[in-house]
Amino acid sequence: MNYFAEKIKSTIFAAALILTLASCSSEDDITEIFRDREWTLSLVKEGSVERYSSKKYNVQFAESSFKAATPGGATISGKWEADGSSKSFRCWDVRTEGSIKGDTIAEKMLQIFRNATSYDGDTNWLQIKQQKNVYMQFYSK
Fold first, then answer.
1. 15 lies in a domain?
2. In a domain, 53, yes or no
């Protein structure tokens, strides 16, 4: 094989390797994104309404369950599953312990957990979505 053909072959191999490595990311690694990571709520969005809080709302995902702590001491917990290839996300058996009545953000979190359909994000930020413009967004510590 001549030098020119060998160079083309090497270039094609390098390009294919770069594309393969670039397609590997933590976006689809459910274990890395969700499990054993504490997430802090940054906003709850419903249409054009965005709710931010200076108070701390945290959620921790275990292997198949989650627990969210509210500033008032109440918790929201349940079971969850996600699919990295389709970015689907769903929760069931979602319940509260303690009262979230009057806590607009916690009430919206409960609603989104109960009706979640998908997620977006990686190991730094995470959105759990009920629908396109209804979601809660978290950042990782």
1. no
2. yes
From the list 42, 122, 113, the residue with the least C-alpha distance to 84 is 122
The pTM of this model reads: 0.79
Q: 36 near 126, Cβ under 8 Å?
A: no
The total number of structural domains in the chain stands at 1
| Domain of residue 114, CATH code | 2.40.128.270
Query: What are the pLDDT digits (tens) for 75-118?
Result: 999 999 999 999 999 999 999 999 999 999 999 999 999 999 99
For residues 20-30, average pLDDT: 53
CA dist., res. 34 & res. 52, Å (int): 22
Using CA atoms, how far apart are residues 90 and 81, in angstroms rounded to an integer? 6
Phi, psi of 37 (to 5 degrees): -130, 135
**Two tokens at 28?**
């689809």
